[in-house]
Structures are given as C-alpha cells and as structure tokens.
Amino acid sequence: MGKSDTKSTENKKRQSIADSSQNSCSKSINETVNGSHEYTIKGYSLAKGMGAGKYIQSDIFTVGGYDWSVYFYPDGKNPDDNSGYVSVFIALASEGTDVRALFELTLLDQSGKGKHKVHSHFDRALESGPYTLKYRGSMWGYKRFFKRTMLEASDFLKDDCLSMHCTVGVVRTRTEAPKLYTVPMPPSDMGLNFKEMLESGIGSDIMFEVGEETFRAHKLILAARSPVFKAQFFGLIGNPNMDKVVVEDVEPAVFKGMLLFMYSDELPDLLDLVSSDPECSSAILVQHLLAAADRFGMDRLKLLCEAKLCEEVTTETVATTLALAEQHHCSQLKTVCLKFAAVPGNLGEMMKSEGYRYLEESCPSLLSELLETIAVGDEDSSQQSSKKRTSSSNIGLNIDHLIDQNLRRLRRRV
C-alpha cells in the first residue's frame, strides 16, 4: 500500500470518529401534573335565588404550580341561556399565561349506586388538544351543567347537600437526553459524620449534667435543632458563654437518645439505650423520649415517637401511653389508645395495671372519653351480633357481662 492510500485510510477513520462524536438524541415528553379537589355544598336550597351570574366558590387548591377554584352558579351563569340550569366552572385563580390543562368534573351520586355524572377530558381524544386558559380568572366548565328541576329530584342531592370531585391536569413539557456520564452516588453520610462528632467530643463547647452522667455537645448544632436550646444559648436572655447545664427531670438514657437524634436525625437504637437499665423497657423509653421532644420543641422526634408508640400499645402500657398522649397533645396516639382500651379483654387488664391508677389521678377526664368509646363500640357490636344471635348467644352474653362490669367500675371512678 502506498503512502497516499495509507493517508486516505487514516483520514476516513478520523472523519468517522468525528461524525460519531457529533451524533446525539433527545426527546420531548408531554405529560400532565394531576391533582383533585373534593367540593361539597351544604345547604343547597339556601344558595338558590342568588340570581343569575352569582356564584359560591370552593377553597383555593393548587395543581401543577397554579391555583384553582370551583365556581358554582345555583341560578345559572347567564340569565338569557341558563335560567333553568345550574352552572359549574373551574377557574384559574393565580397569575398565568396560556396555561394548558385537562379537566374533569364529577357530580357524585349519593345513593351509593355509583351513577355519577362525569364530564371529562381525560378519557377521550380532544381534536383541538388541551384547553388553554389565557389569564387569571379564565374558566372551563358548563353553563348548562344540570337542569335545576332534574337535579333537585335526583340522587345527586341528599340532605340538601351536593358533592363534586374536580380534577385538573396541567400540561407540562420536559426534554430528556441521554447522560454522557455515570457517577455512582453514595447515600448521604451527614448524619453519621455529625454522630461521630458527638461521640468523639471533638470541638464540643457545652457539657450537660444529667443525673450522675455527663454529655458533651456543640451549642450551634443544638441551637439549630431545638428552639429551646437556641433561646438558651443565643436568645435575648440566653448566655452564649455558658459551658455547663444541669438538666433535671430527664433520665440519662433519654437525654442521650435525644442527643443522638439531634445529630443523626434518626431514632436511636433503643436496645442500646435500655441495656444500661434493665428495669426500663423500650416502650417506656419512647414515652419519656416523646415528653423530652415536646419539652425541647423537637416536633419531628415527637412525631416519630408517637408513631412508634402507636405500633406498640399493650394492656400494660396503654394507660400510661393514653395519659401521655393527652398531656402532650398527640391526637392520633390518643385515638389508638382509646380504641385499644375499649376492647373488652383489653379493658379489664388495663384496669388492673399500675398505669391505670396514674391515669385516674392525672387525667380523670379521659375516663369519660373512654366510656364514650366503649359505648360506641358496644352499639356497633350489638347491631352486628343481633344478626348472629342464634349462633353466638353465650359468647355475646359473656362479652356484655364483662363490658357491664368494667363500665360500672369506670362509672364509680368518674
């Protein structure tokens, strides 16, 4: 092969490499960001007579970065065309230009038959594409949504109440292109790094005395995690120069658990914390941790403890947990405890526990709520058991007897 042939071959290779490096691809993806709003109109008959063009309006709801609202015209939107109809519209309630969206309005059948009245863009092809709203106040909907006389005689109106389900799908376009790199991304280790700082004591500037134990920590981290510590160290009456704090009414294991959470943002290993105190169970530790979280203004820790306690309610702990939920305003935990305690078998065991005496003394009002919960449960069970009375009469009598016994004991205490 001559020099000229070799040179020609090399030029072709270079050109091929250059051409391949210039090849690329991308795609535009059109999709909707969907959201729904349930709108209920109570006292429909009182809304009639407002006059054509007058409306009542739902609360603002947000979908796809825009605010929306439902407008209901009980006497129609237009006096000339719609005097015998109700009108319903979905309106853009925030600033926006040429916002493209799909809509669905569903008037709910309240008879339970599921025969809803549905107007939807989502389940059919639109010749002109999604609806475009030009500016704030632009609307989509129906002037003649439903004839008033037919509506008032239908199952859509029940107890003078109408309910409708409104869905908005805001059209969004995004562009995707293949990535030319792959960088492995490890999980965040910030919590581990901060936890190591706590355990090593490097750079610590504050010492806590909790019972017979001491803990070293960092004021800036504590101030960032707790408004109470922030005020104590850097507030108007705080002292940024203090180097020691005595903490009362908190057990060392509980304070250690709280510190571990403040540095790692995770619930600590409860087994490690209770290992030093064989008389302290994990449930009791979480109870105290919840109280400490409330005391130091740590809402996330408080919610995590509440969720943990909801999963671990027992006949031995339900009374103290119920009192704790009441004192620290944990509504979901309180509901779980009341329902658990209202079960006949659980109720008797709970009333034998030491925690029940504490509940009587600290939160006597809860006994009345417990009575109400038992009464509701008893009502429901009696309705169900009446259908099966012939096959389970002895069991029903035993349960009723137990409930009556416990109710009498509760009433004497109340």
Automatic annotation (TrEMBL):
Ranges of biased composition (kind: Polar residues): 17-29
PROSITE patterns xref list: BTB (PS50097), MATH (PS50144)
A Pfam family it matches: BACK_BPM_SPOP
Biological or metabolic pathway of the protein: Protein modification; protein ubiquitination
Entry's transmembrane regions: none
Location of the BTB domain: 204-267
InterPro entries: BACK_BPM_SPOP, BPM1-6, BTB/POZ_dom, MATH/TRAF_dom, SKP1/BTB/POZ_sf, TRAF-like
Region (Disordered): 1-29
GO biological process: cellular response to salt stress; protein ubiquitination
Amino acid composition bias (Basic and acidic residues), ranges on this chain: 1-13
Domain MATH: 34-168
Job description of the protein: May act as a substrate-specific adapter of an E3 ubiquitin-protein ligase complex (CUL3-RBX1-BTB) which mediates the ubiquitination and subsequent proteasomal degradation of target proteins.
Membership in a protein family: Belongs to the Tdpoz family.
Name assigned to this protein: BTB domain-containing protein
Natural source organism: Aquilegia coerulea
Upper taxonomic lineage: Eukaryota, Viridiplantae, Streptophyta, Embryophyta, Tracheophyta
